[in-house]
Specification:
The protein has five helices and 15 strands. With 323 residues, it is an alpha+beta fold.
Length: 323
């Protein structure tokens, strides 16, 4: 499937600010399951944009806007060809528990509890309920964990923030896709199964486009396999991977600082569409206008206050994500 993605972010300030420094993780990856054919990052103000690859292999753009300004818009546009390899976890030959004695060192990053993916007393009953029996098929256990989260937790916005620990979804029984993902990561890591956080998009034929989050689980017989506990499915051609990390804090779509006393507000919109063929080299010059209205990102716990820039940056992806 060939998909075009447009992701616009509008940063607005209550008064003029200067020296905005920002970095963005918005360029989709190229791997065995997808190929990023084109990417364009547009900044509404004149600046030089630089690019580097972080420690997880994500493509990161960063820039500095020095002149005073009251608004800054960031437009990320990409064309991605998805070609996921068929994966049937029920056919995996791996058994519980995994023997990781000879595993690559990079897998260790995805075994530890940290940040929002942390240990919690409320997690113990789930671990007791879902722990596989010794020698049982691990692929089936992984899908069983995804199914349990999908069926027993309600998808609902405004109960958690992007940086919320798993305690919140366990307390409320509700959350959004990164909460579902963080919870699944915690369970898998407690069972000694390497698992990582994926930030990206999912295309729906009959619904608005959205940013999304899901897990990738490492099984020796299959490698990394994408599992979406929010929708209880193996990742398919509609999913576009942008960045990977240990949890959300490694992969926010954008973050930054500015100099000034203003309060900042963020509005975002995302659109995806299916293309019949790969576009020309100059495709970004003919991008269709976005039809989705900008959605303001406001902290649900402080609806009558202006959130500061750090809080909003953490909440941006959480508030965009839909089921």
């Amino acid at each position: 499937m060939i998909l075009e993605i447009q992701h616009e972010t509008c940063l607005a300030y209550t008064e003029a600010v200067s020296e905005s420094i920002a970095e963005a993780r918005m360029e989709p990856v190229s791997d065995a399951d997808q190929s990023c054919r084109s990417f364009h990052l547009g900044i509404s103000l004149t600046t030089n944009v630089f690019r580097y690859v972080d420690g997880f292999g994500n493509r990161v753009h960063h820039f500095n806007v020095l002149p005073t300004h009251g608004e800054l818009r960031i437009m990320a546009a990409a064309v991605v060809e998805t070609h996921p390899r068929p994966r049937d976890l029920t056919l995996s030959s791996d058994r519980y528990p995994l023997d990781l004695e000879k595993a690559e060192l990079e897998l260790l990053d995805y075994l530890h509890l940290r940040g929002p993916v942390r240990d919690s007393p409320q997690l113990a009953p789930l671990l007791e309920l879902l722990r596989p029996k010794a020698g049982s098929p691990l692929g089936e256990a992984v899908m069983g964990i995804s199914r349990h989260i999908h069926l027993n937790f309600e998808y609902a916005k405004y109960y958690t923030l992007a940086s919320s620990p798993i305690d919140d979804i366990l307390t409320f029984g509700k959350g959004v896709c990164q909460d579902f993902t963080h919870l699944m990561l915690a369970i898998l890591r407690c069972f000694g199964v390497p698992s990582r956080y994926v930030s990206g998009y999912v295309h729906h034929m009959d619904k608005e486009a959205q940013s999304h989050a899901w897990c990738e689980v490492w099984l020796p017989s299959l490698g990394w396999v994408g599992i979406d506990p929010t929708n209880d499915q193996v990742v398919d051609e509609r999913f576009i991977k942008v960045a990977i990390g240990r949890d959300f804090t490694d992969v926010p779509p954008n973050k930054g600082l500015f100099r000034g006393k203003a309060s900042q507000a963020i509005s975002v919109r995302v659109e995806t569409r299916v293309l019949d063929t790969l576009p020309s080299v100059s495709w970004q010059d003919q991008l269709p206008p976005l039809q989705t209205p900008l959605t303001a990102i406001v902290s649900p716990r402080r609806a009558n206050e202006m959130a500061d820039e750090d809080d909003i940056a953490q909440e941006q992806q959480q508030q965009q994500q839909q089921q």
